[in-house]
Amino acid sequence: xxxxxxxxxxxxxxxxxxxxxxxxxxxxxxxxxxxxxxxxxxxxxxxxxxxxxxxxxxxxxxxxxxxxxxxxxxxxxxxxxxxxxxxxxxxxxxxxxxxxxxxxxxxxxxxxxxxxxxxxxxxxxxxxxxxxxxxxxxxxxxxxx
Length: 145
Prior knowledge:
By secondary structure, the protein is an all-alpha fold. 64% of the residues lie in helices and 0% in strands. It is built from eight helices and no strands. It has helices at residues 3-7, 15-20, 26-31, 34-56, 61-94, 111-115, 119-123, 127-135. Helix 4 packs antiparallel against helix 5.
């Protein structure tokens, strides 16, 4: 290929190709209700299974190319559904005790920070330490200046 290849205008895509590339917008999916998303998910999965059958029967390339778009749409819908579910659960557990929230909703932190003692646990003393402190209190000295 010479310099002419670079100067040539870009190839125009066919109408079918432009139509197939139209995928589900995540912003639109977030605006929909859960029932609508589930319905769209069922339809997408059904269409995907039909396209997979068509692929095995040596169907048109346009149908085969649409499989990828549908797979990605299914993934987007499932992602939005799980995000909404997590948000609702976080709202539910926001008012309750932090130790009662499910582990997947808690903050990740690091392993050492998760396993570290709480302030209350750090300040606790054994019975022996309490007795020793009561018997031998801190000595106070008067210092002249």
